[in-house]
Design goal:
Blueprint (H helix, E strand, L loop, with lengths): L18 H12 L2 H10 L8 H15 L4 H9 L2 H15 L1 H16 L7 H12 L4 H4 L2 H17 L16 H8 L3 H4 L6 H8 L1
Helix pairs in contact: 1-2, 1-3, 1-4, 2-3, 4-5, 5-6
Length: 204
């Protein structure tokens, strides 16, 4: 059986809570991701210091935002900070199967078992288990492994899915966002700390 390789390029940047709405708004005007990325970079719409950083951030952001549809992008621009964070978490999980698997198999599982604390040890155990099937996890340097863990926990904090003390927090999307996410089916909702009953309510 061939196992699809994990993408592992999420080493910096967090969720890009400030930058993402700028890119999404530009795309909703242009309706072309390549043009959007080029314009974001050349016009320095993200107001970063170097052209190299502009290229790296715009490329990474577009690769995630491409996984949102028009209605989700509009909500990203117009919605609350919390809903924006949830949307960006969802987009990141769609882009990165490694993060999606961690969200479903560790974050939500802990929540369901009422294990409220999420630790680096939980991450390390997950990483080691996945490395048995994904050789790419063994191929990266320890320093990169550390960056992946650090940035994943940063994204979880920015999405308000864990506290600064790494306590797991329930996902509380607005009714409008819950309805939007529910259009993608139950599987797409499993990346959030929520019970089966809560997810069923979002699907109705």
């Amino acid at each position: 059986m061939t196992v699809e390789r994990y993408r592992l390029s999420f080493t910096t940047g967090g969720l890009f809570l400030r930058e993402a709405p700028v890119v999404a708004e530009r795309y909703l005007t242009l309706r072309d991701w390549i043009q959007t990325r080029d314009e974001v970079r050349t016009a320095n719409l993200l107001q970063v210091r170097t052209s190299a950083a502009a290229l790296r951030i715009s490329k990474e952001l577009v690769s995630r935002l491409e996984h949102l549809n028009g209605a989700e992008l509009a909500e990203l621009v117009e919605g609350s900070l919390r809903d924006r964070a949830y949307l960006l978490w969802s987009a990141t999980c769609r882009r990165y199967a490694f993060i999606r698997d961690f969200a479903v198999e560790v974050l939500r599982e802990h929540y369901l078992l009422r294990r409220h604390q999420l630790t680096f040890g939980d991450y390390d155990a997950f990483y080691s288990a996945k490395a048995l099937w994904h050789v790419e996890l063994d191929e990266i340097a320890p320093s990169t492994q550390h960056k992946l863990r650090q940035n994943l926990f940063r994204m979880l904090r920015e999405a308000d899915l864990i506290s600064d003390q790494q306590q797991i927090r329930s996902a509380i999307p607005s009714p409008a966002l819950a309805a939007l996410l529910a259009q993608r089916g139950r599987e797409a909702l499993l990346v959030f700390p929520a019970t089966d009953n809560e997810i069923q309510r979002w699907l109705q």
